[in-house]
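From the pipeline queue, job 12 of 40. The input is one protein chain; the requested action is below.

Action: predict structure.
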Amino acid sequence: MSAAVTAFARTLDQELLALSRGASLECLACGEFVMRLRGVLACPECRSLLADGREIPEFVLPRATAAS
């Protein structure tokens, strides 16, 4: 009996593409939800950014707050 092996994990390129087109809302660095601000995907938890091109627009990223 033989079974085909299927890849379980996606590559970084696939993860970035899913994030950029909106199919995924999970930060690749910390796993929290990302938000879209002026064409940039930003994580309020770890402060990572995903922007198209080399220039990042000026914006203020809100701080994540702990739920009380």
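Job complete. The longest helix spans residues 12-21.
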